[in-house]
């Protein structure tokens, strides 16, 4: 008890024996300053019997319903979408071909940077040897 009192600071711990007490079954009741009573210690269990009967943290709480997803109102259709005509599908392929041909014309930023560095150092080598 003294270890508990010293760990918690300015706290007094009192163990009140009860005729129904079984070791290791016990209940802890907090009595704050101003809530103390001048009752005899052997009458304390009867005084606090109602407070001890209240459900505590160790008892399971009432189960809540599982959460419903936020997008439960949106339902996917069971039938697949109607097939589209084949002619519009051919047009995007033809439009993508000119874009693909134009892309290799310009090198990327990094490749241009490294090629410029390469040219600078190769120019210095040529200038040193000649």
Structure description:
With 130 residues, the protein is mainly alpha-helical. It has a domain at 2-53: 3-Layer(aba) Sandwich (Hypothetical Protein Ychn, Chain: A), CATH 3.40.1260. The protein is 42% helix and 0% strand. The chain has helices at residues 2-8, 44-47, 49-53, 86-102, 109-129. The chain starts with a helix and ends with a helix.
Give a concise summary.
The protein is mainly alpha-helical and 130 residues long. It has helices at residues 2-8, 44-47, 49-53, 86-102, 109-129. Keywords: Hydrolase.
What order do the helices and strands come in, and which of them pair?
Blueprint: H1 2-8, H2 44-47, H3 49-53, H4 86-102, H5 109-129
Oligomer: single chain
What integer value in Å does the Rg equal? 41 Å
CATH architecture of the domain at 2-53: 3-Layer(aba) Sandwich
- Contiguous uncertain segments of 5+ residues: none
Number of E-type strands: 0
Q: Structural class from helices and strands? A: mainly alpha
The outline comes out as elongated
What is the terminal-to-terminal distance? 94 Å
- Please report the first level of CATH classification, the CATH class of the domain at 2-53: Alpha Beta
What is the CATH homologous superfamily assignment of the domain at 2-53?
Answer: Ribonuclease E, catalytic domain
Provide the residue-averaged pLDDT.
Answer: 70
Q: Counting H and I runs of at least 4 residues, what is the number of helices?
A: 5
CATH-derived topology of the domain at 2-53: Hypothetical Protein Ychn, Chain: A
The amount of beta strand, in percent, is under 5%
**Secondary-structure element string:** HHHHH
**Biggest β-sheet strands, sense, barrel:** none
| Proportion of helical residues | 40-55%
Keywords: Hydrolase
EC number: 3.1.26.12
GO molecular function: ribonuclease E activity
Protein name: Ribonuclease, Rne/Rng family
């Amino acid at each position: 008890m003294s270890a508990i009192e010293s760990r918690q600071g300015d706290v007094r711990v009192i163990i009140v024996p009860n005729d129904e007490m079984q070791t290791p079954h016990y209940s802890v009741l907090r009595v704050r300053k101003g809530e103390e009573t001048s009752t005899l210690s052997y009458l304390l269990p009867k005084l606090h019997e109602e407070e001890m009967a209240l459900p505590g943290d160790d008892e399971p709480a009432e189960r809540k319903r599982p959460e419903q997803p936020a997008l439960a109102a949106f339902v996917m259709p069971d039938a697949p979408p109607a097939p589209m005509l084949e002619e519009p599908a051919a047009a995007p392929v033809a439009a993508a071909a000119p874009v693909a041909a134009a892309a290799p014309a310009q090198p990327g930023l990094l490749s241009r940077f490294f090629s410029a560095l390469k040219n600078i150092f190769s120019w210095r080598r040529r200038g040193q040897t000649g």
